[in-house]
């Protein structure tokens, strides 16, 4: 099923993101995580994608097949394009179509000095345009409530996002953020710009100090004073920071759901304990 169809059927969609293991023998271990995640009845699970692999050794595709065939949950395959040419994208697309996978999250991908970049696709919108001419995938796009690190300003951000939607992105999944006001303002800007597709907030429960520092550096998310105080107070106590980080994420999610967002996309970091605690906290709230 395409995730656009899921959004038509449900007022608020619940989804998870996981990443494939680095080693082949760890692919079996991830079943323990999937066993728990799929008990929680997500509407779909997205699987991240690393640059540099071929369709023959791509663990993202293997994991997506497992989610679809063994757990009967819709997978959304991340597909980056900066390091691939049209022929390689065609090969990936063919494999996904043969496996009955209907949903792609189209991404530019990060610059990686270890993997040479190619010239066919410079932006996610280029990939979306190309895929729409060659296939019938439901394509999701990424969005940044606090602006993409490469954006010049909010106007530039909206202009580029509108280009992505006009190219064929049918759903938007947001990067993580820690202040819901950024998301509400972002959605308002989207609607003013004529972007009327579902915009789903992405939430990552932060359970250790190293994680928060790494993620803030990578995506440019700002830390509200309230959250910074939590980190400062509890970063020396692993268990206390876990509890505090979970409570903060739950408070974010409950506020978002109360304000009628169209879903919650949970960045699980392959931690089923985190996913279970979050879902237990909202099982009577998300509709």
How many strands? 8
Structural class: alpha/beta
Unreliable residue runs: none
Overall residue-averaged pLDDT value: 91
Shape: globular
Strand order of the largest sheet: 1-2-3-4-5-6-7-8
User: What proportion strand?
Assistant: 15-25%
The ordered H/E elements are HEHEHEHEHEHEHEHHHEH
Question: What's the helical proportion of residues?
Answer: 40-55%
Rg of Cα set: 18 Å
Count of helical stretches: 11
N→C terminal distance: 19 Å
Main sheet overview: 8 strands, parallel, barrel
List the helices and strands and how they pair.
Layout: H1 3-9, E1 13-18, H2 26-39, E2 44-47, H3 59-71, E3 74-80, H4 86-98, E4 103-107, H5 124-134, E5 138-143, H6 154-167, E6 171-176, H7 180-192, E7 199-203, H8 209-219, H9 225-234, H10 238-258, E8 263-267, H11 272-282
Parallel strand pairs: 1-2, 1-8, 2-3, 3-4, 4-5, 5-6, 6-7, 7-8
Helix pairs in contact: 2-3, 2-11, 5-6, 9-10, 10-11
Structural account:
This protein is α/β, with parallel strands linked by helices. Strands 1-2-3-4-5-6-7-8 form an 8-stranded parallel barrel, surrounded by 5 helices. Strand 2, helix 3 and strand 3 form a beta-alpha-beta unit. Helix 5 packs parallel to helix 6 and helix 9 packs antiparallel against helix 10. The model has no long low-confidence stretch (mean pLDDT 91).
């Amino acid at each position: 099923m395409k995730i656009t169809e899921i959004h038509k059927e449900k007022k608020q969609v619940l989804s998870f993101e996981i990443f494939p293991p680095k080693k082949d023998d760890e692919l079996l271990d991830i079943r323990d995580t999937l066993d728990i995640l799929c008990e929680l009845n997500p509407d779909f699970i997205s699987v991240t994608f690393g640059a540099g692999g071929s369709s023959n050794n791509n663990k993202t595709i293997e994991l997506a097949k497992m989610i679809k065939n063994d757990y009967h949950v819709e997978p959304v395959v991340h597909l980056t394009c900066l390091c691939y040419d049209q022929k390689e994208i065609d090969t990936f697309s063919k494999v996904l179509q043969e496996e009955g996978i209907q949903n792609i999250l189209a991404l530019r991908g990060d610059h990686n000095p270890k993997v040479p970049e190619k010239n066919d696709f410079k932006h996610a919108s280029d990939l979306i345009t190309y895929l729409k001419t060659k296939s019938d995938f439901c394509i999701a796009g990424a969005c940044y409530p606090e602006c993409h690190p490469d954006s010049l300003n909010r106007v530039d951000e909206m202009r580029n996002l509108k280009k992505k939607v006009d190219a064929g992105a049918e759903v938007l999944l947001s990067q993580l953020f820690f202040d819901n006001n950024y998301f509400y303002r972002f959605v308002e800007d989207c609607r003013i710009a004529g972007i009327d597709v579902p915009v789903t907030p992405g939430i990552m429960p932060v359970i250790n100090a190293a994680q928060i520092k790494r993620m803030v550096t990578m995506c440019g998310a700002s830390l509200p004073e309230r959250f910074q105080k939590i980190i400062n107070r509890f970063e020396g106590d692993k268990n206390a920071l876990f509890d505090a980080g979970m409570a903060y994420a739950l408070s974010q999610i409950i506020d978002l759901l109360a304000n009628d967002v169209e879903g919650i996309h949970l960045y699980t970091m392959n931690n089923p304990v985190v996913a279970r605690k979050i879902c237990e906290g909202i099982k009577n709230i998300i509709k």
